[in-house]
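Hello forum,

I keep getting stuck at the same step: I have a sequence, I want structure tokens, and every attempt I make locally crashes halfway through. Rather than fight my setup again tonight, could one of you with a working pipeline run this one for me? It's a single chain of 52 residues.
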Amino acid sequence: MLLYPTVDDNLEQKYVIQGNVYHVNTVNLAVPFEQIRERLLAIVQVSDRISG
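Reply #2:
Ran it on my machine without issues. Output:
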């Protein structure tokens, strides 16, 4: 999983390269911590559902 700060819009992409799955997500660091926390938890939950 690759995490980047949000520039304009949130990004949620999944790529499969040579059989390996890569998730690319952004997190808006300009919002209150609680919103950052919720975003990170949501990203992890989606990743867990897809991976496992």
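DSSP finds one helix and three strands in the chain. If your local run keeps crashing, start a new thread with the error log.
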